[in-house]
Each structure stands twice: as structure tokens, then as C-alpha cells.
Design a protein that fits this description.
Layout (H helix, E strand, L loop, with lengths): L2 E12 L2 E7 L2 E3 L3 E5 L6 H8 L7 E6 L2 E2 L5 H4 L2 E4 L11 H9 L7 H10 L13 H13 L5 E5 L7 H15 L5 E5 L3 H7 L2 E6 L2 E7 H7 E7 L13 E7 L2 E7 L3 H8 L5 E5 L3 H9 L26
Parallel strand pairs: 4-9, 4-10, 7-8, 8-9
Antiparallel strand pairs: 1-2, 1-3, 1-5, 5-6, 10-11, 12-14, 12-15, 13-14
Helix pairs in contact: 4-5
């Protein structure tokens, strides 16, 4: 199977506002895909449409080769979903929650769940209502992994967890990833986590998938350029790939997608005192790309323009 997840022009409106706009998303089998975007970008709505909690207004989605609206019982058993906030039944203890979950999955691996709970130091007798946020996340992960799913869909799974619990949670996910053929789609606001475990990222801006590429490709494409003039900075001519332009005293701080010789040559014509090109980590590159453009967002190579009437999806 080429894709674990495939969407075609997936679209959702709320109150006349298009929150997901013609989404064409492909998550290859065996891939760990981080779905990023600022609050309100459409990430959670997208994940909810994928698992059938929200119905799209247009388009379609396929998981493990089947349409979401027609998933067979067998295929549903191969998919796990962790909702944001890790909702659990408050009146149960952990052991009861495990038994309740296993009732829906005859093939659930009880020994494996027990190993996960033991790894996190969780007792089956502990009441869910008394668990911390981190412990709830750990229980949710154990329950999701009970049927040994092929595809995991996680909505901001580490939100609100402290650093130690988050690290333990991520290491558990990494162990899952190492099992051959497992696929993971997850959203997150913690870019360090994404950089650590994702193979590929998608970035949504106002419901549109603007970037879809390997993590290292995105980091390598976005650059901050500091141009010092030692005087009042001159006006900047039109420059291909310019994402942001800020004046700070006698310098201009520029952000580019795909900064190269042509852009450098153009800046050199302004006779700067110093020109410094800075590499960015994933978090800084993401912030610079999504902070709210002063100019239209430049397209990634191969990305169709709005005028072409497509989904504005970045190229790999």
C-alpha cells in the first residue's frame, strides 16, 4: 500500500467559514508525519474528519486503503486515535478502562498493555479521576496500543505535559515507530518534539496545506538574512522568495524561502556593510513561515498557485 492516509480536496465549513480548504494530504505507509499550524489553522478538524468524528462538506479521505465513511470493522481495528486532552471515563480505574477497551478489540494484546502500564509505573487499581495530566496521557497511549494498530492518529498528544513525562511519552512512541510498517500522523505545538520524531511535515495556514515535505527540506529552505547598512536602510526591491521584512535600527531582518545566489546578488547591490545568512531550527523556521506575512506567502518549488485553482500544497 502506497499511502496510509490519503485525502482528496477535503473541505470543511463552520458557520460559512472554510476551516479546511481542499486538503490533499498523503501520508506514506511507515511514515511519521507531523501536521503543524497555528491555532485555528484546521489541524484538529482535519484529524477529526479522518477518524469520522466530523463529516467533510466536500472531498474524501481514505485510511489504509478504505474510505473513512465506509471503513470495515476489521480496518477500524487497525487504527488508533488519541484525542486532544486524553478524555477517559472518570468513574473507572485503569484496569476497568483496559477491560472496557479490550471488549471492542478481541485481538488486543493484554500482556503488551500491562508492559506499557508497568513501564509508566501505573497501577491497574488507580482511579482515573485522580491521575495527573501526564498519567492520563500514558493511560491513553496504552489503551490506543492495545490492538497493536498499524496507524496511529494523535491530536497534540504531549500538550500540557511536563518535560520529563513528555520525554518518556515520546520515547514510547519512538519504540512503536521502530516496529516495521507502523504509520503515525500527529499534530503538535511543541516543535522540538516534531523535529525529534517526524520524517515529514505538513504546515497548514488558514486551512490550506502550504508545505508538505521532509523535515530537513523545510529547515533547509527557510533562512533568516541579517543585512546591516550602518545607515538608514534603503528600500528593498521586489525579491523572489521574500517572506518577511523588518527594519531594526540600521539593519533589515529578512526571511526567505529558498535563499540563493540571485537573492544575495540583489541584496549586494544595496551596498550593505554586512550580510549574514542564518540557519534555523524547525521551531524558528515554522514561526517565521507562519507568523503572519507582511507580504503574500511565497510558494515552495512545484507548489501550484491560487490562480491554478488547486489546493496550494507544497512540494516534497
Amino acid at each position: 500500500m502506497a499511502e496510509a492516509i490519503l485525502t482528496e480536496r477535503l473541505t470543511k465549513y463552520y458557520g460559512g467559514h472554510k476551516v479546511v480548504d481542499n486538503l490533499n494530504l498523503r501520508v506514506p505507509a511507515g511514515c511519521v508525519y507531523g501536521l503543524l499550524g497555528r491555532n485555528g489553522a484546521g489541524k484538529s478538524t482535519t484529524l477529526k474528519m479522518l477518524v469520522g468524528l466530523v463529516h467533510p462538506d466536500h472531498g474524501r479521505a481514505m485510511l489504509l486503503g478504505e474510505e473513512v465513511s465506509k471503513l470495515s470493522v476489521q480496518t477500524r481495528g487497525r487504527i488508533a486515535y488519541l484525542a486532544e486532552g486524553h478524555p477517559l471515563y472518570e468513574g473507572m480505574n485503569i484496569g476497568q478502562a483496559v477491560a472496557f477497551t479490550r471488549a471492542f478489540y478481541p485481538v488486543a494484546n493484554a500482556a503488551f498493555v500491562d508492559q506499557i502500564l508497568d513501564h509508566f509505573g501505573l497501577s491497574p487499581r488507580s482511579r482515573i479521576r485522580r491521575l495527573s495530566k501526564g498519567q492520563r496521557a500514558q493511560v491513553s497511549l496504552a489503551l490506543a496500543l492495545a490492538p497493536d494498530p498499524e496507524l496511529l492518529i494523535l491530536d497534540d498528544p504531549t500538550l500540557g505535559l511536563d518535560a520529563n513525562v513528555r520525554r518518556d511519552f515520546l520515547e514510547s512512541i519512538i519504540q512503536i515507530i521502530q516496529r516495521r510498517g507502523r504509520s503515525i500522523l500527529f499534530s503538535s505545538h511543541i516543535l522540538g518534539d516534531v523535529e525529534r520524531i517526524a520524517d515529514r511535515i505538513g504546515i497548514m495556514v488558514d486551512g490550506v496545506l502550504r508545505v508538505d515535505c521532509p523535515v530537513e527540506h523545510f529547515k533547509g529552505a527557510v533562512r533568516k538574512v541579517l543585512v546591516e547598512f550602518g545607515r538608514q536602510p534603503p528600500e528593498l526591491p521586489a525579491c523572489e522568495g521574500l517572506l518577511g521584512d523588518w527594519r531594526v535600527g540600521t539593519r533589515r531582518e529578512l526571511v526567505f524561502v529558498n535563499f540563493g545566489p540571485r537573492q544575495r546578488a540583489l541584496l549586494e547591490t544595496l551596498n550593505p556593510v554586512r550580510l549574514e545568512v542564518m540557519e534555523l531550527n524547525l521551531e524558528d523556521a515554522f514561526i517565521e513561515y507562519t507568523r503572519g506575512p507582511r507580504r503574500p506567502l511565497p510558494l515552495f518549488p512545484g507548489e501550484p498557485s491560487d490562480a491554478q485553482g488547486t489546493g496550494d500544497q507544497g512540494a516534497a
